[in-house]
Specification:
175 residues; mainly alpha; two-stranded antiparallel ribbon; 2 strands
Amino acid sequence: VIMPETKVLGDIAGNRLAQISWVIPDAAASDHPGSNNGSGPAWVASIVNEIGQSAYWNDTAIFIVWDDWGGFYDHMPPPNIFNSYELGMRVPFIVVSPYAKPGYVSKVNHEFGSILRYIEEDYDVGSLGFTDARADDLSDCFNYLQTPNVFHIIASPIGPKYFLRAGAVHGQPDT
């Protein structure tokens, strides 16, 4: 887990990015209602653009996910596995990688444990035995036999320098 969150930008530029990194924006860039300044999409674009233009692009998978569904309506009820709290409303989930299927919309029921399951299988380590054990491994989102996707810069009105200057002055999004 990279803290402060802006450290990821220096890690990418300095070729020090860990093999697995979890990055959570500060409250201002979090997209949480009432606590953000609207810079969330630019924050994500900054990190993806930096990775996409670096040596990391060739063998990286970026998973962009939100912890809230962003609304009060979903036409698909969540599956009830053990209790009503176990799985909730669907949340946006984006896979960015040279081996992500272009324009692909998955119909598989993924969950947060799917990210961990992907990591466990990629690094050939055992399961922690909770949601990762039942989760899928996100394999439907990838085609490792395809010609690698060429990275295209994501247009954004705010770049990494803004976030490096701003620093983590607004606290964490869930505080």
